Design the sequence.
């Protein structure tokens, strides 16, 4: 099932967190407080991992799909997308400290 922006806006919070799936493990987590968070569940090295992409509407459906696609591309190259993200973040922090 592919999500639409209309379906995302119409999603109402429930007593427990609920998930609305897009495709290939990408889903929107709707929390009881009303927050809507993009998540991606993926397998790597025999383990299941979870990657966060941000909060809707700050991260739109189109942007979440772009981030998801980039992560899937890293997986096909046998790179853990979370490890890649952490490496880039620490690299950016190191450059910032040098300034």
Sequence:
């Amino acid at each position: 099932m592919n999500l639409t922006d209309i379906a995302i806006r119409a999603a109402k919070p429930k007593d427990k967190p609920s998930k609305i799936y897009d495709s290939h493990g990408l889903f929107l987590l709707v929390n009881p407080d009303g927050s809507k968070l993009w998540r991606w569940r993926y397998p790597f090295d025999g383990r299941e991992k979870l990657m966060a992409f941000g909060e809707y509407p700050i991260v739109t459906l189109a942007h979440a799909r772009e981030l998801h696609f980039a992560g899937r591309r890293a997986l096909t190259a046998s790179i853990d997308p979370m490890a890649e993200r952490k490496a880039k973040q620490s690299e950016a922090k190191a450059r910032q400290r040098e300034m």
